[in-house]
Amino acid sequence: MAHGLNLAQLQAVHYTQGPCLVLAGAGSGKTRVITHKIARLIETGMAPRKIAAITFTNKAASEMRERAKSLIGRQAKDVLVCTFHALGVKMVREDGHVLGLKPQFSILDSDDVVGILKDAAGGTADVATARQWQWTISKWKNMGLDYKEALAQAADDNERAIAVLMQRYDERLTAYQSVDFDDLIGMPLRLLRDHPEVRAKWQTNLGHVLVDEYQDTNATQYELLKLLVGERGHLTAVGDDDQSIYGWRGATLDNLKKLPVDYPQLKVIKLEQNYRSTSAILRAANNVIQPNPKLFPKTLFSELGEGEPVRIVDCDSEEHEAERAVARILSLRAAANPPPDWKNFAILYRANHQAKPFEKALRKANVPYKVSGGTSFFDRAEIRDLCAWFRLWINNDDDPAFLRAITNPKRGIGHTTLGRLGEFSKAHRCSMFGALFNAMLEDAMPAKGRESLLEFGRYINDLEYRARQTRGAEESLAFLLDWLKEIGYEQHLYDAEDSEKVAAARWTNVLEFCDWMAQRAGGQTTTAADTTTVSESKSLLEVSQTIALLSTISEREKEQDMVILSTLHASKGLEWPHVMLIGVNEGLLPFKLDDDDGRQQKVSDDTAQRLQEERRLMYVGITRAQRSLAVSWTKRRKKGRELVSALPSRFIAEMGLDSNTAREDPREKLRKLREEFAARKAQSSAAASPDSN
Ligand SMILES: Nc1ncnc2c1ncn2[C@@H]1O[C@H](COP(=O)(O)OP(=O)(O)OP(=O)(O)O)[C@@H](O)[C@H]1O
Ligand SMILES: [Mg+2]
């Protein structure tokens, strides 16, 4: 097991007596330390289920599980590898009853939250305002505040009003037996903080907790972590202060500073060798991050050789930029034999909307690509409709799911009827579903409306019963298809869409989703949020319970051979042989900074801090590249409908490249291509792929 680790890494892996912090730059093998340490802990006799490894995304979790599996085999499946949120789901499912929550609680998605907030505020607010409330409440929850504490620290009347709204909002969530995304951290924290027996249970159950990307944890997550590991502090955290890019979401570098204070026995280990990138790439990264104040001094070197110079690509417009990116991918592929896989290329950008021209250009050139971190499969309206039905089978009290299921597809139940049902359920303090079977409902609405409601209720009960009996892949698929036919979902899609093509695509998604669910019922796959690894067939009801959780917190990831388009934020922790950073313009990266035009000497503290975070984002982007890096910017950008002239980002100059060699010159490229062609010919058939590592 020792192979493939340097001395400092080995030290981190073997130190299991107490808390350990690995603090090191990008690509220095921090994540590798975590996987090897999992293996080491198991080797020394710790039961795999006593180990928890916390990652930043579900994708990172499944990758880590794979890596652990290749080191230690099947035992890896019992290690709890998941995100903070998935851990939260597990904790709330096991112990939420202490807080009055049943194990079959629902997790609300962002749209549900906005709907509930609007409703709780009297129903007149627009979506933008409701999103603002959502943002503020989320911020408070991430600071570990309940509505009373939020009220006490509110800065103005507006915030006080939101704190009052927060109370009503949380009351509704309790009534719906539902939680929002932030509760998945806040509730476990309350469980451990306020309930010693629960705390004792988790501290005994977990022998060691490992955390990747520690620099991006927020205050609540840190508190949770501390309570999970207790005073013994069997904790390994790895991180890089230069890669902290979630400050805007409440992550705080204070957690890095607090660790040595809260754990005086903390062992701090630094790693200095970068195993990912060539020296040319690493130098550009070091230059960019250099102006930022240093929390901990570090140096980083690479032994992978100088490599290709970093390319700066000047473009006229976004379309031009996209064309050049595609041309670069094609020429890099043409230059190697066999050509590197598509998945070796990544196009990274600051904001989601920047992907569009690139998608168009890639499609035009028939290049397979995947937008990662964009709209997830589970965010599609049709999938969310189906998930609402599942949520309702599992948790009849989930009112948002009830409303979504009863109206998708429409079943002739009008708004008036639903409105009356809503009022009745409020007056009688029960869920809308519960109200259906209340004898007093007779007085609240005309018989006709009531009859259709009851019919729906009976149908849900019937489905729940049938789903419980349905096991295995084949039965499940048959059940799902029957159900979709019964509710007329395909027709519903065709009615809702003007374009038949769009409707057909949505129906294909539905079928793909059913197939995927059926496979899970057959016991095939494991996913990041589903921490209990599936190995035998499950009933469809059990499967839908985990799907309902997945619907908001997981992306369905398949390993496919495609060019990756990703935001810089979503690229954290990942690596590709060839990376293109695009839209590296002032105003985009760094993103618009209020009082800073790049020339002023003095800027406000806030702006200076945001600039530091933007610089870290650029650093993250550069350090994703293993062998080649191109950085492009455009002379003109779209602003609304207009084309305005634009400047290259200050970060391009800061990379400190020699402008003569770095600019991409078409003539030089041609020369290189010729050279490579000649070299390949000489090598003839024996040529091995430089990309097959
Ligand atoms: N000792 C080593 N020998 C050889 N390769 C290594 C070694 N340590 C790490 N690597 C490789 O270097 C690359 C970067 O490692 P890893 O992803 O663990 O770095 P990291 O510090 O987590 O990076 P980031 O800060 O971007 O998350 C990986 O491909 C990994 O397999
Ligand atoms: Mg990492």
Automatic annotation (TrEMBL):
Q: Which reaction does it catalyse?
A: ATP + H2O = ADP + phosphate + H(+); Couples ATP hydrolysis with the unwinding of duplex DNA by translocating in the 3'-5' direction
- UvrD-like helicase C-terminal domain: which residues? 279-573
Which Pfam families does the record match to this protein? Answer: UvrD-helicase (PF00580), UvrD_C (PF13361)
GO MF term set? 3'-5' DNA helicase activity; ATP binding; hydrolase activity; single-stranded DNA binding
Task: Identify the Gene3D superfamilies for this entry.
Answer: 1.10.10.160, P-loop containing nucleotide triphosphate hydrolases, PCRA, domain 4
Residue ranges constituting the UvrD-like helicase ATP-binding domain according to the UniProt record: 3-278
Q: Name one GO biological process term.
A: recombinational repair
Q: Please, which domain of life does this record's source organism belong to?
A: Bacteria
Q: Which GO terms describe its cellular component?
A: cytosol
Instruction: List ligand-binding residues for ATP.
Output: A24, G25, A26, G27, S28, G29, K30, T31, R276
EC number(s) stated in the UniProt entry for this protein: 5.6.2.4
State the InterPro entries in the record. DExx_box_DNA_helicase_dom_sf (IPR013986), DNA_helicase_UvrD-like_C (IPR014017), DNA_helicase_UvrD/REP (IPR000212), Helicase_Rep (IPR005752), P-loop_NTPase (IPR027417), UvrD-like_ATP-bd (IPR014016)
**Coiled-coil segments on the chain, per record:** none
* Keywords assigned by UniProt, alphabetized: ATP-binding, DNA replication, DNA-binding, Helicase, Hydrolase, Isomerase, Nucleotide-binding
Oligomeric and partner information: Homodimer.
Q: Which family would the database say this protein is a member of?
A: Belongs to the helicase family. UvrD subfamily.
Main function: Rep helicase is a single-stranded DNA-dependent ATPase involved in DNA replication; it can initiate unwinding at a nick in the DNA. It binds to the single-stranded DNA and acts in a progressive fashion along the DNA in the 3' to 5' direction.
Identify the HAMAP family for this entry. Answer: Helicase_Rep
Q: What is this protein called?
A: ATP-dependent DNA helicase Rep
In which organism is this protein found?
A: Comamonas koreensis
Q: Which gene encodes it?
A: rep
